[in-house]
Amino acid sequence: MPVQYLSPEGMIPQTPYHHVAVGTGTRYVHVAGQVAHMPDGGPIPSDLAGQVGQALRNVRRGLQGAGAEFRDVVRLTVYVTEWEPSKMGEFMAGVESVAQEVGLPMPMPPASLIAVVQLFEPGVLVEIEATAVV
């Protein structure tokens, strides 16, 4: 297994992600920020949970295209518009709704959630980047 997840003692407890990932593979896979665009070109979900779920599906598609899976991810970076802590429940509902489907380990790989004013397209609430080692 090319990735080992750790949450050393003394780091913030009970987070939905691990604090450290150690990658031992030889190839890095970088997936550019993915949003909730639908594969068939249909409208993106309007809610945060729906967009998080679809963005994770799209990240998985990118990982698989390079021969990787979520178990190979050493870092996730998530950008969310107009973030406030009260949105964490809806955000995690989106994660949990697709975690098993896409093979996302829970707790998640090390992750950062960054609040932004807006993303590149109106109506896009979340964008997710991934780095993997295989």
UniProtKB/TrEMBL annotation:
It comes from the Bacteria. CDD domains: YjgF_YER057c_UK114_family. This is Enamine deaminase RidA (YjgF/YER057c/UK114 family). It comes from Glutamicibacter protophormiae (Brevibacterium protophormiae).
